Amino acid sequence: MHRVGSAGNNTNSNRPRKEKRLTYVLNDTADTKHCAGINCLALLKSSTSDGSDYLFTGSRDGTLKRWALGENTATCSATFESHVDWVNDTVIAGDNALVSCSSDTTLKMWNCLSDGPCTRTFSQHSDYVTCLAAAEKNANVVASGGLGGEVFVWDIEAAVTPVSKSSGVVENDCSNGINGSTNSLQISSLQTISSSNSIITHTTQCHGYVPIAAKGHKESVYALAMNDSGSLLVSGGTEKVVRVWDPRTGSKNMKLKGHTDNIRALLLDSTGRYCLSGSSDSMIRLWDLGQQRCVHSYAVHTDSVWALASTPTFSHVYSGGRDLSLYLTDLTTRESLLLCTKEQPILQLALHDDSIWVATTDSSVSRWPAEGRNPQNVFQRGGSFLAGNLSFSRARVSLEGSTPAPVYKESNFTIPGTPAIAQHEILNNRRHVLTKDAAGSVKLWEITKGVVIEDYGQVSFDEKKEELFEMVSIPAWFTVDTRLGSLSVHLDTPQCFAAEMYSADLNISGKPEDDKVNLARETLKGLLAHWLSKRRERHGSQASANGDILSGKDMAARSSAHSRIEVDGNAENDSMVYPPFEFSTVSPPSIITEGSQGGPWRKKITELDATEDEKDFPSWVLDCVLNNRLPPREHAKCSFYLHPCEGSAVQILTQGKLSAPRILRMHKVVNYVIEKLVLDKPIDSVSTDGTYAPGLGGQSQSGSKPWQKLRPSIEILCNNQVLSPDMSLATVRAYVIILTSGTRLAFCWKSHALAKCWDLYSSGVACHDRKCPRDPCIYGKMIGFRSRGIL
């Protein structure tokens, strides 16, 4: 499974340290829609009659959104962005505290009524945090559970009190949206619950808050629920049992058995006497905690039950899951009714007066009629059935074709989302990525600008991929995934600095056409252009000019650690961003990375405020954009042999192996051949035996020399295949011939007449064409042949 966190290796100090990566997440729409499945919902009802209710949605795209609800409207009034992986659950604690948990192993706190960033980050869990529970009448208590089997109970009021930093729990102040702070928490002991229900107090070495740990789960926890007063907590997961805890002490009260598969959803009534559980065994069970037994079981679904929501009186339950169906069940009479069916599995439910919000693996959220105040009104429509006691009874009914018809065919309102990207392909030019979303739309992205450059609509993805194929070879300098529903582009050092292109190929004006442009370096400059601008404003022109961001001691230490880093002499040491690397400010990408302190963080590039430094960015990123330093790049050149075609009278130019940049085009090789053939004295810059020949890859001179007009008159072959003048050495090695000891290239005249002219000239015989110009150099005679149409 995808893991997000520090890339450092702390288990073996003898291994080389792996550098932190930088990721940027692309978005081609305004920041008012989710672009992946909705994992969680939370409702905040207005305390005044004329105020708006708010719906909070947490998505697999890593963000939360706040929606101001009207009668038939929902306006996105805020986006909360800090998690670096899926948001799995969210709850409202008190009047204005929004708490979220994520697959990035953290919990985060937000002021749900403001547009501000994350206020606190807690990193106590060892694995994905999957679920949360809050006490409605006790605003301070929130519980969290995860795949590591941990269940923690947090005192929110104590957690937000800033005191000295604790080593017992990682807590970060992210008031600027970035983890890393000197503020911490207030309690100094961790209460660990052993399997014998005894409480063992561990005092941490430093003062700071740590949550209560309810220990007992040996496997993953998927569901939590708490009663209104916060005096009772229930948990469930892959162990197929419901565990009951006292969250005030962490002691385990009881264990309830009955389910035959993972427990995925839990509910407690306000008093804490009754508990509802939904399981992957397709069953819903009602437990009496006072009697410590299951009093009813409901075979309603034909597949896993993933979401439960009850009426305020706990008389009826709404349930949804993997079978795409939403059911309403009377817990007393066992009467059940199919309210609606969806196109995707149902992940979460939120009852809102007489409606219910339904979240699925789709990026949209829909509202359906529910009659939450008086659910018996729905049953008067007819079509109900009696829920069985065994799961196979409901499955048998489904197989017999007697599945009930849904009461409602369409939702009464939908908050639309952007279809998630379901398929992608990195094209050979290593600048474009072809994608196909869940709606079937195929788009072409330019990742060095973060924009869609072509929307092909609903066409065949495979056919479009073949159509866009180019016979070019550029090193793989980035990787891509679509876990967050959009393109996440990952840059890892030193691999990301392997790709270069000529400025002419990028259509960059104002630079010599043969200047080499490092794609990763220019992409980083484009991503951090806003940050660099803010930094210049913050530190002044002098700090901007010398690029120093560290103290002398820190800089010396880092220079020692990066002794193999080399300065990129071909790139200007400035922050100028060229057009092919200008990122959109309308739909700006978000950066995900981490520095020397804190954990991973996420922020839009337009929201970077220059307070970020080496504690927040990987050192190699700052070395690149500020100090113009790049790591060594391996295998940046290609070696090859160059000789005349078989049977040609042209002399052998060199006996040794030539070496040139792998991006060198064949027309440069042609120029080199003509220089060697035509000029009386070979150029001094040519070298053999594996050393670089600047004549093959040097800067172009201003204006064209006369002999350069002969370039189309010579062909370069490999394996008897004529190579295109625009083909690079790397492309030849990738598609024409693959050799480890060097590619063998041959050159020859393009026509028989030109070859004969060369033979006469090299033998000292005058040209027989009296009208041919008598220039002392062979290129004059060749031009004469060409002008008369002989060639």
TrEMBL record:
The keyword Iron-sulfur is annotated on this UniProt entry: no
Keywords: Repeat, WD repeat
WD repeat start-end pairs: 80-111, 122-164, 214-255, 256-297
SUPFAM superfamilies referenced in this protein's UniProt entry, alphabetically: WD40 repeat-like
Protein family per UniProt: Belongs to the WD repeat WDR48 family.
The protein's name in its UniProt record: Uncharacterized protein
Family annotation (InterPro entries): WD40/YVTN_repeat-like_dom_sf (IPR015943), WD40_PAC1 (IPR020472), WD40_repeat_CS (IPR019775), WD40_repeat_dom_sf (IPR036322), WD40_rpt (IPR001680), WDR48 (IPR051246), WDR48/Bun107 (IPR021772)
Organism encoding this protein: Hibiscus sabdariffa (roselle)
Transmembrane domains' residue ranges: none
Biological classification of the source: Eukaryota, Viridiplantae, Streptophyta, Embryophyta, Tracheophyta
